[in-house]
Amino acid sequence: MSFPFPPGTDEDTPFFVISVAAQLSGLHAQTLRSYDRLGLVSPGRTPGGGRRYSMRDIVLLREVQRLSQEDGVNLAGIKRIIELENEVGALRAKVAELTEQLASAMAAAEHAAASVHASYRRELVPVRHETALVVWKPQQKR
User: Fold this and answer.
1) Which side of the chain, N or C, has fewer Cβ within a 10 Å radius?
2) What's the whole-number mean pLDDT along residues 92-115?
3) What's the pLDDT at 142?
């Protein structure tokens, strides 16, 4: 679902009241309250305690409905699926972060190695290359 977000907001900004979220997700408002109590969806809260749903929450509600109705997954299974998907997302972000750190460290190591090799070139002394043949004769034992 494409939605033009107001300036300074994104898909994580909670601004839909429960009635609008219910309409957008195709669920009843009481179902949304139940999903909130079960921890399937965690909407934002106003200072007065009212629920505010983000666009990401709406997408998640639709996915919960699809898993339940089309795939026959019970709510406990859906909760576990959501937890695992969140964990996978966090792990992917960590892998991306570590990959970036590794690339940065490798670039720094390559730069340091290049600096060391460059300093060797200034310190090298030319050596004449000659070939000579030496004949070795072992002494006889007495």
Assistant:
1) C
2) 96
3) 67
pTM score of the predicted model: 0.67
Task: Let me know: does 56 contact 11? Beta carbons within 8 Å.
Answer: yes
- pLDDT digit string, tens, across residues 6-48: 777 888 888 899 999 999 999 999 999 999 999 999 999 999 9
- What is the Cα Rg of the chain in Å? 33
One-character DSSP codes across 4-44: -PPTT--TT---B-HHHHHHHHTS-HHHHHHHHHHTS---E
